[in-house]
Prior knowledge:
The protein is mainly alpha-helical. The chain folds into two domains: 1-32; 35-72, no CATH class. It contains three helices and no strands. The protein has helices at 3-29, 36-44, 48-66. The longest helix has 27 residues, at 3-29. The relative contact order is 0.05.
Amino acid sequence: MDTWVMTMMLGVSLFMGSLALMAFLWAVKNGQFDDEEKFLNAAKFDNQEDLNDAVDKEKKREKIKKKDYRPE
């Protein structure tokens, strides 16, 4: 290969790598990877029914905080 082809390939590779790094750093800065609730809920609950029960319990807790809660 000619040196100009290798130089062009190296330059394009460095440019694309720097774009990927900037995109990754932007995503980290804006919290794109901060989905802690998903991982915590996945560890606590095994199936869809357990998740639905947890959501219902959370809604009841919110109603209690608002003093709107009336037992069923």
